[in-house]
Each structure stands twice: as structure tokens, then as C-alpha cells.
Amino acid sequence: MTTNREIAPATAAHALDILEGRVPLYAALAEAAEVRERHFGKAVRIHILDNIQNGRCAEDCGYCAQRKDANSGIEPYSLKANEAIYAEAEAAKAAGAYRFCMVTAGTGPSAKRTEELAELIRRINADLGLRVCLSAGLIDKKKAEVLSAAGLDRYNHNLNTAEEHYGEICTTHTYRDRVETLENLSNAGVGLCSGVIVGLGEKPQHLVEAAQELARLRVASIPVNFFIPVPGHAIENAQTLTPEYCLRVLIVFRLLNAASEIRIAAGREGHLRSLQGAALMVANSLFASGYLNVQGSNLAETLQLIEDAGYHAETAAGEPFTLAANAGVGYSPQRVKDLLKFPQVSS
User: Fold this and answer.
1) 246: annotated binding-site residue?
2) Residues contacting residue 164 through CB under 8 Å, at least 6 positions apart
3) Is 64 flagged in the annotation as binding?
């Protein structure tokens, strides 16, 4: 499918036409699929999340089970020991993960904890050769430099929605705070991972604006989450999302961020449903083994989805990884599933 034909950048107006259904789905999908394949071929990057701290957060993000006063029923626990986190990174590499993502709840790490995380990042890089993404809240310039010096590959800090809509979903920090964190890390040389949560009561125009802002910030990796109404959430105008609309959202983020990694993130199983395979024609990345406090498809199911759609998983070494090629050589989907099982609640 890859061609040498020039592809004109998508406009905001065209993106809005796609979201609002004025462009036939087959036409929009074909347009985005050509862009995806030109930049990423048939490769799909699998990310595995490790929730290294649960709950006890002072922020009031309405979509989150870990927010203050959420009464969501999750089991709060303090930061995992570095040895436990390292063991989970080893399991992620054995499972064929492209990147290991560590996530903590809270406003942001202390200076001391930043140094500890930096040492862990160095070890994972040196011993495992596995790319590391960290999500730990707000980061100032000095902490960004510490993490960069340790070899942090990516830092995740989602914008979640457009600036105009941000006050509807969170009041304990601002949209501007999030943008400044991304700018601090980018200036320190750390790659950016930042995305959105679809279904928080936003308008289609808000999603277009968020996609454009991520392009302005030159975000390399964009997770597109579909809102899961976890117990204790505080989103008053949550929307009912159809599989077609979710696919159109992914198309828009691909067209407005052509060379960025577009990741099908939380909620793909319940919202995209039978269109998950089609979504891989647009997105080149996804999560396996759950989303922080919500269970998702296990690794074996995710690999099968990728292979059934005609794609292959890409490992940290850049080599294809398939279930068939790894059968009988020590790879056990159930073993990996057990190793990567984190405290979760049902959605």
C-alpha cells in the first residue's frame, strides 16, 4: 500500500468533517491507513503498564479511580520497591513489549523520589535494553533534567482534552500546568507521550483542538483513551461512544499527527469492540494486560488481535514478535499474564 504520492496535511476543517460524519468512514479509513503504513509499515508496538503506586492522590481528575475522595474501592498501596518494578520490567521484555511504562499517582515526585526513579531507569536501560516511559505527574525543569540524564525515553502526561474544556474535568491543577510539564521535559531532551480521554463531555471541536496542540508540542506518542466509567468517577456529562465514532477519533489523531505513534489505549475492548482490528489500520500501538485500575485484554489475546489483522508486534530490538514464532521456546502467555497482573477493579 505504501506509495510515493505526496499526502497533504489534514486541515482542522477536514478533521471535524470526519468526526461529525460528513466523510464516509471507508474514505476516512483509507486516507489514514495510507499515512499509517507510510510511517510505520505493518509494525505494532505493545506497551505494558506497571502501576507502581496506587491511590492516595491529592488531585481531583474526574475520570480517575485514584483521585481524592473517589470512593472507588481500589486498594491503595505505597510505591513499589525498585526490585519489584525491575522484575516486572523483565517480564514485560520476555513478553515482547516494546516499551515498559511506569505510572504513579499523585501531583508529582519529590526530588528524592526523582533520583530513585532515575536510578531504576538507568538499570532497566543498561540491563534489559528496554525503553522506559514514566508517568509521575507534574515535573519542573530540574527534575526533567535528572530524568533525561538517566536515559528516560518517554514521559507521559496527558492533556486529556482541550483547554476550554479542562476546567470541567479537573480543578486542582490547570491545563497550563500540564503543558508546562511537557515543555520542561521536551526542553530537557525527553520524548513526549501525551494524549486524550474521549467521552468526557467534550465537543468534537475539542478533540480537534487537542490533536492540534499535541502536534504543536511535537508529541511523539499519543495514547487515545476511551472513557471507562470507573466506580467513583465524577464526570457528569459522560458520552455514549459508538465503535464507529471511536474509529473516527483515531483517524483524526492520525491525520493531524501523521508521524506520531498513535496508541489505542484504555477502553478499546469495550468501545471499539469488533472494530479493534480495523483500528490497527490507523493506530500503530496499543496497551496489553490492563490500564492502571481497569482490566483489559491479556497479552496472548492482544498478540492474536494483531496477527489476525495482518500486522506484527515490534519488540524493543525492532524485530517482529508473533505467537507462532515463539511457541515452545519458553514463552507462556499464561505465565506472562500472571507476572503482569496488577491490583485492578472491574469497570
Assistant:
1) no
2) 206, 209
3) yes
Question: Hey, what's the cell of 329?
Answer: 521456546
Look up residue 222 and give its three cell numbers. Answer: 499519543
Amino acid in the structure at residue 41: G
| DSSP character at residue 316 | T
Render pLDDT for 49-101 as a digit per residue (tens, 0 to 9). 766 655 457 777 778 766 555 554 444 445 678 888 899 889 888 877 778 88
Using CA atoms, how far apart are residues 262 and 195, in angstroms rounded to an integer? 9
Q: Residues 155, 189: contact at Cβ < 8 Å?
A: no
For residue 9, what are the contacts with CB-CB under 8 A and spacing of at least 6? 258
Residue 284: predicted pLDDT: 97
Per DSSP, the residues of 251-305 read: HHHHHHSTTSEEEE-TTIIIIIGGGHHHHTTT--EEEES-BTTB----HHHHHHH
Is 263 annotated for ligand binding?
Answer: yes
Please state, as a whole number, how many other Cβ atoms lie within 10 Å of the Cβ of residue 155. Answer: 26
Closest CA to 297 of 277, 319, 325, 324: 277
Q: Give the integer Cα–Cα distance in Å for 99 and 219.
A: 16
Secondary structure of residue 112 in the 3-state scheme = helix
- Domains (ranges, CATH) in the chain? 12-327 (3.20.20.70)
Place of cell 478499546: 268
Q: Which helix (H) or strand (E) holds 220?
A: none
Does 170 show up as a binding residue in the annotation? no
Q: What is the pLDDT of residues 299-343, one digit of tens each?
A: 788 888 999 999 998 876 666 766 655 554 333 444 434 433 333
